[in-house]
Design the sequence.
């Protein structure tokens, strides 16, 4: 571990314990809004950055050193563990993941291999170990959730309405179920390996599951999410976080899962989650990242509002409602981090 005292405010907030200040981190805190990131990215493809532990660790540390955030998140992508199981995926700059062999039939599902982290993604485990030596804040490991991974695997890339995914789910329910179970196994195996390597918390990104209504979520997705968080809880006491965009209507379902922290986007306030929906878990969020392109006075007022709501009960982690954008200025995130730390201490 690094010389400096270890800052465990984030882990304490995950466990709903008292904190020195509200911990802060930003989804996609490593990314194209950073000139240093863009410079490294010019030299490597996305997966090269991911697969060379020294580069991966450097990019992971960048926002911690530059912004003063309370956690690091491993620099990888939700697509990282899909490549070795037979998904031909490329990350295209300015687009995102593009898949050359999208899933159409049950055969495309059954031929996917099982993930063996030590053989298939040794560089991820190496990066986690390296970062554990270097950081004085907790490292978050992560995985995509089955629905969100399946959406890329079926659509072949980013989508606005997920109609191919839903069509597959409705018309080939048995194949859907096989796919969900396979991806649940991958998620659990991958996260357990990251935890064994030293990840101090894990986040499951279900970014696009908000596209489903509540009955469909309950029928087609909730059982495997129960399986994932149940198996993780059985294996370790490392805090688990579940996040999705536009998924406020699913929060009552999420409240029944064995996840420790729920991520909110900007559409659901912390007060609403706690008071109207009765969520008693820790909450993470939820400044609209678009607001970071607006005037500082508005950013500060909104951040103040989020902290005022967050500190009413133990268990709040400040974050954005979704990832950073390339247009955001480094200085804005530096100023925001300092403001959150200072303001939440006074409360
Ligand atoms: O700093 C960090 O947050 C760590 C790195 C990280 C994480 C946690 C990256 C790097 N990707 C992710 C997760 C991820 N990837 C999610 C879940 C979180 C979210 O909703 O944002 C999703 C949906 C993806 C898929 C993906 N990969 C997209 C979105 C495409 C879409 O459908 O709109 C994109 C643009 C990527 C590429 C990517 N991943 C990460 C970075 C820094 C980038 C940009 C790569 C580049 O061109 O430099």
Sequence:
């Amino acid at each position: 571990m690094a010389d400096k005292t270890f800052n465990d405010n984030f882990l304490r907030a995950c466990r709903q314990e008292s904190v020195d200040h509200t911990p802060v981190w930003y989804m996609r805190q490593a990314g194209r809004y950073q000139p240093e990131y863009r410079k490294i990215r010019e030299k490597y493809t996305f997966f090269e950055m991911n697969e060379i532990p020294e580069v991966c660790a450097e990019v992971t540390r960048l926002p911690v050193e530059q912004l003063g955030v309370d956690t690091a998140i491993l620099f990888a992508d939700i697509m990282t563990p899909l490549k070795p199981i037979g998904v031909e995926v490329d990350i295209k700059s300015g687009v995102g993941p593009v898949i050359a062999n999208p899933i159409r039939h049950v055969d495309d599902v059954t031929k996917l291999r099982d993930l063996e982290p030590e053989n298939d993604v040794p560089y991820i485990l190496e990066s986690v170990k390296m970062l554990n030596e270097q950081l004085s804040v907790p490292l978050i490991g992560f995985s995509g959730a089955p629905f969100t991974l399946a959406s890329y695997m079926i659509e072949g890339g980013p989508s606005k309405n997920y109609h191919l995914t839903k069509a597959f789910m409705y018309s080939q329910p048995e194949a859907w179920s096989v796919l969900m179970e396979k991806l649940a196994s991958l998620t659990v195996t991958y996260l357990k390996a990251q935890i064994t390597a030293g990840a101090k918390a894990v986040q499951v990104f279900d970014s696009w599951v908000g596209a489903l209504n509540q009955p469909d979520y309950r029928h087609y997705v909730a059982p495997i999410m129960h399986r994932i968080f149940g198996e993780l809880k059985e294996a370790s006491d490392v805090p688990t976080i579940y996040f999705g965009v536009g998924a406020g209507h699913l929060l009552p379902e999420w409240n029944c899962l064995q996840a420790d922290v729920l991520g909110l986007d900007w559409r659901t306030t912390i007060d609403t989650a706690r008071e109207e929906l009765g969520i008693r878990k820790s909450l993470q969020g939820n400044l609209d990242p678009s607001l970071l392109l607006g005037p500082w006075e508005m950013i500060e007022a909104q951040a103040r509002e989020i902290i005022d709501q967050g500190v009413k009960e133990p268990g709040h982690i400040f974050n954005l409602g979704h990832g950073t954008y390339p247009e955001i200025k480094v200085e804005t995130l530096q100023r925001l981090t300092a403001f959150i730390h200072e303001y939440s201490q006074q409360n």
In short: The CA atoms of residues 109 and 178 lie 7 Å apart. The pocket of coproporphyrinogen I is lined by residues 27-32, 41, 46, 73, 75, 77-78, 91, 93, 96-97, 142, 158, 205, 207, 323 (CB under 6 Å). The longest strand covers residues 139-144. The mean pLDDT is 97.
